[in-house]
Amino acid sequence: MTSTFPNISISTERLVLRPLDEDDAPALVEMMNDEQVVAWTTVPHPYTEADAHRWITRRAPQIRTGGRGIVLAVTEFLTQRLVGTVRLKNTDWRVRSSELAYVIAPWARGEGYACEAALAIAQWFFHDRKFERLELRTAAGNTASQQVAQKIGCISEGVLRNAWTARTRTADGVWSEVRTDVIVWSLLPEDLTGVSEQLADRGGFTSYPDWN
């Protein structure tokens, strides 16, 4: 069985999660060229305007319409500034599960945006879409992403040894690939109970299907 997620917008107290727009391209380019993003993701480097437009206009929409997941921009509610992206991928409609990934721009780190965005999409995923399992995979050295996973209630299930290729700068400033372990985390609907109450205390969220 294959299906698709609706074109969705989710609002929290501070954030709006919505489909990427071509106007996001300049901020997306700057964000994806940040050293931490280059190190822990597989985005092209250097990340160009052409890469951003291809992702916004073709690849991200195809992920949703093809039933593989959904990609959302994370923006500040008041300023509408792009502060990150959140993505569901490798969606399995038969077993009702998917994998969560997120990127936060360097200018927005330390504000709790990653946790707020991840919680919002997790609640929508479980409560509105009736899925049963959300999985996260973090490189062993990516402590910031691991802290987000812990704060939103994820449970560490184990380590996949030597399962990921990260990137690091050599002494002469050149990026090179290195093998690393991967920590597997899971989140189930019942794991959100305590954290959901904390989010509700901050105003909760509202979802808008078929957003345009």
Which short descriptors sum up this protein?
single chain, 212 residues, alpha+beta, 6 helices
Question: Quick gist of this model?
Answer:
It contains six helices and nine strands, in the order ββαααβββαβαββαβ. With 212 residues, the protein is an alpha+beta fold.
3D structure, described in words:
With 212 residues, this protein is an alpha+beta fold. Helices cover 31% and strands 34% of the residues. It has helices at residues 25-32, 35-40, 49-65, 113-128, 143-151, 193-201; strands at 9-12, 15-18, 70-76, 82-92, 97-104, 133-139, 155-169, 175-187, 205-208. A nine-stranded mixed β-sheet has the order 7-8-6-5-4-3-2-1-9, sandwiched between helices. The protein starts with 8 loop residues before the first strand and ends with a strand. The mean pLDDT is 92.
Task: Give the topology, please.
Layout: E1 9-12, E2 15-18, H1 25-32, H2 35-40, H3 49-65, E3 70-76, E4 82-92, E5 97-104, H4 113-128, E6 133-139, H5 143-151, E7 155-169, E8 175-187, H6 193-201, E9 205-208
Parallel strand pairs: 5-6
Antiparallel strand pairs: 1-2, 1-9, 2-3, 3-4, 4-5, 6-8, 7-8
Helix pairs in contact: 1-3
